[in-house]
Design goal:
This protein has three domains: 5-82, Winged helix-like DNA-binding domain superfamily/Winged helix DNA-binding domain (Arc Repressor Mutant, subunit A, Orthogonal Bundle), CATH 1.10.10.10; 90-159 and 260-287, 3-Layer(aba) Sandwich (D-Maltodextrin-Binding Protein, domain 2); 161-254, D-Maltodextrin-Binding Protein, domain 2 (3-Layer(aba) Sandwich). The strands form four sheets. Strands 4-3-5-14-6 form a five-stranded mixed sheet, with helices on one face. Strands 11-8-12-7-13 form a five-stranded mixed sheet. Strands 1-2 form a two-stranded antiparallel sheet. The protein has helices at 5-14, 17-24, 28-42, 58-82, 99-115, 132-135, 167-172, 217-225, 235-243, 273-287; strands at residues 47-49, 54-56, 90-96, 119-125, 139-144, 151-158, 161-165, 187-189, 194-199, 202-207, 212-213, 230-234, 248-250, 260-266. The chain starts with a helix and ends with a helix. By secondary structure, it is an alpha/beta fold. Helices cover 41% and strands 25% of the residues. InterPro entries: LysR-type_TF_proteobact-type, LysR_HTH_N, LysR_subst-bd, WH-like_DNA-bd_sf, WH_DNA-bd_sf.
Length: 289
C-alpha cells in the first residue's frame, strides 16, 4: 500500500526524478519505477512527462495535497512518540556568505547545536544566489532587499549601509556633498554598479564606477582602508574603523534604511522539526540583540 508514496512526494517536492533520486540517495531508475508502479496500482497518471520536464496532472496534484497532509500527521506522531520534540536530530544544510554570517549567525548556530547535540549542521559559504530547493538546502542567510519569490523571507535584523573612505583618499579627492558627485570618484564595487540613496524621501539610484570589485566585504574594507576609493558597506563592518579615525563616513543624510539580513527558506509543506526549531531559535536570538 505504501510502496512508491515517498518517491512520489520527493519528485513533487524536488521537481524531477533526478533531483528526487539525489535527495533519497537512490538511482533515477528506481524513482521512475516506483512512481510508475504506483500509477499502475492507482489506475491514474500522476505526472505529465516530456523529454525536458515533468508536471503534475490534476489527479496528481490532488493526490499530492492529501498525501502531504497524511505524511505530516505521521511525522508529528513519530516525533511525539520518539521524543524528537525534546531532542531533535538530523542534518540541517545552510547557505550564506559574508562577515555577518560568519561572525553573527554562526555563533548562534553553534549554541543551537550545543543545546541539541543530535543535530548536524552543514554551512556552505557561497556568494552566488543558490537555488535552495534544487541544491537541497534548508535555509539561507541573505542580505539586502528581498525580491518576490517562492521563498519565505523573514528579517533577522536591519543593517544600515554607509559610504566610507580613508582620510588619505579624501586628502587627494574632495569629499562628495551629493550622491551624484560620486561619478567623479573611484568607487569600490561589491555586487552591482548602482548605489541607492534617499533624496528627500524618494529612492534613486546612482551609477558608479571604479577599479576595484569584490564580492567579499573584508576585501572591500581592506581596499578602502588602503586609500583606494569610496566603499558602500554595512555600518556594523566599518564602525570600529570610523571610531578609530581610519575611515570617514560620507553622505549620511542620503542613506536608505531598508536593508536587512534575512532568513530565507523554501515554502515546504513538510518541514523537519529540527529546521523549524532552528528558524524560531535564530529569529528569537536576533530579536533579543
Amino acid at each position: 500500500m505504501w510502496q512508491g508514496l515517498d518517491e512520489f512526494l520527493h519528485v513533487v517536492e524536488h521537481g524531477s526524478f533526478t533531483h528526487a533520486a539525489k535527495a533519497m540517495e537512490v538511482s533515477t531508475s528506481h524513482i521512475s519505477r516506483q512512481v510508475q508502479q504506483l500509477e499502475n496500482r492507482l489506475g491514474s497518471v500522476l505526472f505529465q512527462r516530456t523529454t525536458r520536464k515533468i508536471s503534475l496532472t490534476d489527479a496528481g496534484r490532488e493526490y499530492a495535497v492529501k498525501l502531504k497532509a497524511i505524511k505530516q500527521e505521521l511525522i508529528d506522531a513519530n516525533n511525539q512518540l520518539q521524543g524528537e520534540q525534546r531532542r531533535p536530530k538530523g542534518l540541517i544544510r545552510i547557505t550564506g556568505a559574508g562577515e555577518f554570517v560568519a561572525t553573527n549567525v554562526a555563533p548562534k548556530i553553534v549554541e543551537f547545536v550545543k543545546r541539541y547535540p543530535d543535530v548536524e549542521v552543514d554551512m556552505d559559504f557561497n556568494n552566488r544566489n543558490v537555488d535552495l530547493v534544487e541544491e537541497g538546502f534548508d535555509l539561507a542567510i541573505r542580505f539586502g532587499r528581498m525580491q518576490d519569490s517562492n521563498l519565505i523571507a523573514r528579517p533577522l535584523c536591519p543593517r544600515i549601509m554607509t559610504l566610507v573612505a580613508s582620510p588619505d583618499y579624501l586628502q587627494q579627492n574632495p569629499a562628495p556633498t551629493t550622491p551624484h558627485q560620486l561619478t567623479k570618484h573611484n568607487c569600490l564595487v561589491a555586487m552591482g554598479k548602482r548605489w541607492r540613496f534617499n533624496f528627500n524621501g524618494e529612492i534613486k539610484e546612482v551609477k558608479i564606477t571604479g577599479n576595484w570589485r569584490s564580492n567579499h566585504p573584508r576585501a572591500l574594507l581592506s581596499a578602502t582602508l588602503g586609500g583606494l576609493g569610496i566603499a558602500h558597506l554595512a555600518c556594523d563592518i566599518v564602525e570600529q574603523y570610523v571610531q578609530q579615525g581610519q575611515l570617514v563616513t560620507l553622505l549620511d543624510e542620503f542613506q536608505v534604511t531598508d536593508n536587512a539580513s534575512w532568513l530565507v527558506y523554501p515554502r515546504k509543506d513538510l518541514m523537519p522539526y529540527r529546521v523549524r526549531l532552528l528558524i524560531e531559535y535564530l529569529l528569537t536570538s536576533f530579536r533579543a540583540c
